[in-house]
Amino acid sequence: MSSPVSLCRDNDIGVIRIHYPPVNALGQGVREGLQRCLQEALADDQIKAVIVTGEGKTFPAGADIREFGKPPQPPALPDVINEYEASSKPVIAAIHGTALGGGLEVALGCDYRVALDSARLGLPEVKLGLLPGAGGTQRLPRLVGIEAALDMIVGGNPVKAAAAKALGLVDEVVSGDLLEGALAFARNVIDEKAPLRRLCDLPIPGDSGADVFARFEQSIARRQRGFKAPFHCIKAVQAAAELPFEQGLQRERELFVELLLSPESAAQRHVFFAEREVAKVPGLDKDTPRRDINTVAVIGAGTMGGGIAMNFANAGIPVKMLEVKQEALEKGLAVIRRNYENTAKKGRITAEQVEQRMALIQPTLSYDELGDVDLVIEAVFENMDVKKAVFSELDRVCKPGAILATNTSTLDVDRIASFTQRPQDVMGMHFFSPANVMKLLENVRGEKTADDVIATVMDLSRRIGKVGVLVGVCHGFVGNRMLHKRQAEAIKLVNEGASPQQVDKVLFDLGFPMGPFAMSDLAGMDVGYRIREELRKEDPANAPARNWTDELVEAGRLGQKTQAGVFDYKEGDRTPVPSPDVDGIIEQYRSDNGITPRAISDQEILERCMYVMVNEGAKILEEGIAARPLDVDVIWIYGYGFPVYRGGVMFWADQVGVKKIHDKISEIYQQTGDPVWKPSARLAELAEQGKGFNR
Ligand code: T1G
C-alpha cells in the first residue's frame, strides 16, 4: 500500500506532502512517512530547504484519535517532531485548513510557518481531556510567551491566521495559492541564508514567574470545576518555564500519560466520536434523498417559537413566523431583536448582522402565506386540541412534500400526525429552551415518518448548528423521560428525610451545572405542575400522586421567576437559598403522610438519582426509542449539561460498573416493589454477560 506521505523536489526545495483523508490525522503511516521523507530530503544534496504541507482540506488536524487506547506504534510523534527540529536544513510548514493538536506541534517542530489567510491553528487536546503531548506545551511558550500559550492550550480554541501572525506563531500569511507562497518564502530563506530557528533553543519571552500560573489557575477554577486536563496543561506549561527543554519534554510526557489513562479523557474522547456518530442513523441508507429546505415557517412567536426562528435566521434561512394576534407577533419580534442586540453588545455579532437576521424573519398572521415553505415547525401551547387545530390548517395550506414538524416536548407525535393526510411528512423536532442557545435537538420519528424526511431533518440539524439525535415516540422521548424519573426520585428522597439542598449538592458535585431542585426553579415549577394536573384529569389512576412541590406552586412559589420556589432568591441573584417556609411545608407533608424522616447519605442520593436514570435509559434502548447508548449519552450532555468528563449517563454507568448498578437496582426493587426500580432486561443481560453499554 502506498505511503500517505511523499517527497518531491521543486528545484532546490523539497516538498513533503501528506495525503491521508479526511483530516491528514497523524496515524502510524503518516508518522513513518514524515520521518522517511525528511531523511530522504536531508540526504539529497540538491535540496536546500524543505516544505511540509497537507493535501486535501487541511494540514494535519492532530494525532489519530482512533489510535488512543491501543498499543502505541513507532515512530512516536514526539520523536518525529524532534527529528524535524534537529534538521540541518530549514523546514517550513505550509498550513491551510485547521492545523490542530499534533498537527500544530509538527509545525512547531519546523523552523518557519507559512499560513493561508483562511487557516486556523490550535491545540484542542484539552477538549479530549488531554494536553499537547508532542512538545506543544514546551515549544509554544518559547514562541508566543506564557500568557498566550496558556490561553491557547487551556482554552483549546483555534486562532485565525492573522491572529497567529500577530502572536508570532506564524511567520507569513499568504492569500491564493499556499504552495506558491511557501515556495517563495523558502526561496527567500535560502537566498538570505536565514538561520535555522529551533524553538527548543529559544528563551521564553515575557513574564514566566510562578504567580502567572497561580493567577491563571485561579481564573479558570470555577469554569473548569471537575475537569482534570486544564490543570495538567498549566503544570506542563509551567515546566517549560522552570525546567531545561529536555526535562520539560519529559514532564509533559508524564502529565500526558496520566491524562491519557484517566477516566475523564476516555469519557471526553467517547463524546468526541459520539457527537459525530449520532448524525449517522443506523438503518438509514446514506444515499437516502434529502428534500430541499430553502424556506421555513415557525408557528408561535413565544419563547420557544422565537428561539427556533432565530436558529434559521442565524443560518441564513428565511423564516416566516406566524401568530394569531398582531400583539403576540410584535412581542415575539421585540424579544428576538433584544436577544440579537444583547449578542451584539457582547461583540459576538455586528449591528449589521442583527439587521440581516431580523430581515430574514418574516412575521405573518395568515396560514395562507405558508403555501411555499419547505418546512413548518409548530411551537404552540402543549395541548392536543391546539395541536390538532394547527396541524389541520397546515395540512390544508402547505404544499405537497413540505415537512410538518412539532416542537412538542411530551405529546404523542403519532397522534399529531394523524390530524393530517400526510403522516409520512410529520415528525417531531424537540428543541431545548432557550432554543437559540441549547445545542440538543431531539428529532422524533413517527411511526409513519418517511426516511427522506428523517434524513432531511437530521442534516438540517447540523446546518442550524444543533446536535440532532433521532429518537422514537414515547412520553418525554429520551431526555425528559429519564429526567422525570430522576425528579420523582429526588422528591421521594426529600419526603424521606433529605433536604432539597443536600440532594442538589450531590448532583452538583457529580458535575451537573445545578441540582434537580435548582433546575426546577430555573425552568419554573408551574410547568411540571400543569403537566401533572393534566395527567390527573386525563388518567387519575396512573397520574403522579400529589406531593409537596404541588403545594409550593399552589402557594405561588413558582421558582426564580417569583423569587421563590424550592429555594428563595434575592432580587437579581440566581443563587438558591434554602427556605424555612419550604422546610415547614415539607415537614407538614411528611406529617400528613405519616412519614418519619431519616438521615439519608449522599451515596444513597447519588445511587437513587443516577441509577434510576440508567435503568430508564436501558429500557429506552430495549424499546428502540434510542438506537444506541451513545445517542442517550449525547442527549444528556447537550440537553442537560451532564459533565462531558463523565461521558454521558450510559458511559458513566459503564465506568461505575453495570453489574454493580444492576445489583443495587434489584435490591431497591426488592425493598420497595416500585415498578420504576424493576431492573430492565437489557441491564440484567449486560450484567449477566459482564459487559457495558458502550463496550
Ligand atoms: N483523529 C481521527 N479522526 C478524526 C480526527 C482525529 N484527530 N479529527 C477528525 N476526525 C474524523 C472525524 O471523526 C470524522 O470521521 C471526520 O474526521 C470528519 O471530522 C499528540 C494527542 C478537524 C475541525 O482534537 O476538531 O493531537 O465521522 O466531522 O466538521 O498532542 O474534526 O467522517 O468517520 O469533525 O470538518 C487533536 C479533532 C487530537 C481535532 C474537522 N486534534 N477534529 O471538522 O469534520 S489529539 C483534535 C476536529 C492530539 C497530540 C494530541 C474536527 C475538524 P467520520 P468532522 P469537520
Automatic annotation (TrEMBL):
Catalytic reaction equation(s): a (3S)-3-hydroxyacyl-CoA + NAD(+) = a 3-oxoacyl-CoA + NADH + H(+)
GO BP annotation list: fatty acid beta-oxidation
Pfam families found in the cross-reference section: 3HCDH, 3HCDH_N, ECH_1
PROSITE patterns recorded: ENOYL_COA_HYDRATASE (PS00166)
Pathway(s) where this gene product acts: Lipid metabolism; fatty acid beta-oxidation
Protein name in the entry: 3-hydroxyacyl-CoA dehydrogenase
Subunit structure: Monomer.
Molecular-function annotations in GO: (3S)-3-hydroxyacyl-CoA dehydrogenase (NAD+) activity; enoyl-CoA hydratase activity; isomerase activity; NAD+ binding
InterPro entries, A to Z: 3-OHacyl-CoA_DH_NAD-bd, 3HC_DH_C, 6-PGluconate_DH-like_C_sf, ClpP/crotonase-like_dom_sf, Enoyl-CoA_hyd/isom_CS, Enoyl-CoA_hydra/iso, NAD(P)-bd_dom_sf
Residue ranges occupied by any 3-hydroxyacyl-CoA dehydrogenase NAD binding domain in the UniProt entry: 295-471
Domain called 3-hydroxyacyl-CoA dehydrogenase C-terminal: residue spans: 476-569, 605-691
Keyword list, A-Z: Fatty acid metabolism, Isomerase, Lipid degradation, Lipid metabolism, Lyase, Multifunctional enzyme, NAD, Oxidoreductase, Peroxisome
Subcellular location: Peroxisome
Family: Belongs to the enoyl-CoA hydratase/isomerase family. In the N-terminal section; belongs to the enoyl-CoA hydratase/isomerase family.
UniProt cross-references to PANTHER family, sorted A to Z: 3-HYDROXYACYL-COA DEHYROGENASE, PEROXISOMAL BIFUNCTIONAL ENZYME
Species whose genome carries this gene: Alcanivorax profundi
